[in-house]
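Re-run requested by the PI after the first attempt was lost when the workstation crashed. Everything re-entered from the original request form. Ligand of interest: inosinic acid.
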Amino acid sequence: MELKAIINSYDLRKRVFELSLEIQRDFKSEIYMIGLLNGAFIFVADLVRHIKNPVYVDFMKVSSYLGKESSVFNIICNITLDIKDKDVLLVDDILDTGKTLSKVKDILLSKSPKTLKICTIIDKPSRREMPIEADYVGFKIEDDFVIGYGLDYDGFGRNLDFIAKIV
Ligand code: IMP
Ligand code: MG
């Protein structure tokens, strides 16, 4: 597999820090952060360490991708944190077609949070099939399949500390 780096680790770290400042500014007090497994595990871990507000963290695992193609949506593991009347930040690795985040957003909204915002490190706007946008986006990219910083191709590449496209 040949990789071409499109975002280096310095730019990633810098952008994550900038996003954490925006998030701190907007959420004035407690943040209920919900990460989507597995892709968001690194991003969540980096974000929370920059944020000075009290942060409660939980994760949800859903299935939506096999290889490069979307498959059936299933909740594999739900949150246990009570988010009713709370300010929630849903964090994922990438906003692609938007199918996953639309479903997860509806599930979280059904739990009556006070507010719900979405944050992804990568956005591929040209791939969108659902009317959904993230409130905080690290980088907008072209329609390339990328790995690194939590993102994988069939399990490979999550541990890279940069983002690369597969060429
Ligand atoms: P969506 O439902 O099409 O928006 O897809 C969201 C999920 O697909 C993400 O959480 C990723 O797990 C996966 N995905 C989409 N594009 C990529 C990519 O370029 N690289 C790795 N995973 C991706
Ligand atoms: Mg994912």
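Saved to the shared folder this time. The two ends are 8 Å apart (CA to CA).
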